[in-house]
Amino acid sequence: MIFKRFTRLALAAAVFTMAEVSAASTQDYPSRPLTIVVPYAAGGTLDTVARHIGKSLGEKFGKPVLVENRTGGGTVIGTNVVAKAAPDGYTLLMGSSTPLAINATLYKTLPYDPKTDLKLLALVAASPLVMVVNPASPIRSYADLVREAKARSLPYASAGNGSPHHLFMELMMSMAGIHMTHIPYRGTPPALTDVVAGQVPVMFCDLISCLEMMKAGKVRPIFSGTRTRLPVLPDVPSSTEVGLTDFHAASWLGIAVTGGTPMPVQSKLHDEIVGIVKSQGFKDAVEKLGMTTMESGSLEELDAFVQKEIVRWGEVVKKSGATAE
């Protein structure tokens, strides 16, 4: 009886001590360098944004913030690194709608559950897409595109099976009542190269990848996937203007952390990242990339946002028949 009582007291003391250590470590956070994992190659949009946020976070925390590129598996490899990391707030993900929402349906199985193994801390920016065609194409407007697609078998390029470029096109086709043949590529650059060469007539392209091509006259913009005209493309009509109401083609970017990270740490990261996103320096930086900043709301609102995005993209993925393994 005495032994059992001693065991209970020892166990309670151990739990209390662990709670004290956890509380102390939360108060001291961060006490060592942080890492932002980017599931894309260096030099791209997400990598550029991650390095800007990492530099600003490092200045605020007084600790180095390293950016680590972990590519492969359609963002699954890098995302899984964060999902399986210790839930202590020292490993972050520079994510987007692809790893945090689209992949939940696109892949039959994932090594992580985006609903529980990751926690979105803040929305950072929106990367708009623009429909572009080869300059020699007879397609000069959305109406032309619809007419051409109904008259003949029209192929379109994308950055890959299940990419936002692919799925937004599928969504647009369902709204327009047309069908085009999907030609997937391994990323935006090779897809855009073939549109420029006239091998494929049309594609949705993220603005940062094709803006210089547009300026050089190598591709012709038809309309932006945004509800209002983009400031950098004042002469290009928006999706609303061409008749696609409730259509908004833009990938969102956000910072996530491992699920189960203590709430005080989540809140601290959330507040600091939101502050960075609201700064004029960050706004100027993303505008140069052809993007706009996004408002995050509370952590609870971000949870709801991710759940809605998983459902929304799940419906588009199922309708398109896209799969990836």
Describe the structure.
This protein is of the alpha/beta class and 325 residues long. It has two domains: 32-126 and 251-320, D-Maltodextrin-Binding Protein, domain 2; 128-224, Periplasmic binding protein-like II (D-Maltodextrin-Binding Protein, domain 2). It contains eleven helices and ten strands. It has helices spanning 2-27, 45-61, 76-83, 97-106, 142-151, 164-176, 188-197, 207-215, 263-278, 280-288, 299-320; strands at 34-38, 65-69, 91-96, 118-133, 155-158, 181-184, 202-206, 220-224, 250-258, 292-293. The strands form two sheets. Strands 1, 2, 3, 4, 7, 8, 9 and 10 form an eight-stranded mixed β-sheet that branches. A two-stranded parallel sheet has the order 5-6. It starts with a helix and ends in a 5-residue tail after the last helix. Mean pLDDT is 89; it is low at 13-24.
The radius of gyration is 23 Å
The number of helical runs is: 11
| Name given to the CATH homologous superfamily of the largest domain | Bordetella uptake gene, domain 1
Oligomeric state, counting identical vs distinct chains: single chain
Tell me what the CATH architecture of the largest domain is.
3-Layer(aba) Sandwich
Number of domains: 2
Per the principal axes of the C-alpha atoms, what is the gross shape?
Answer: globular
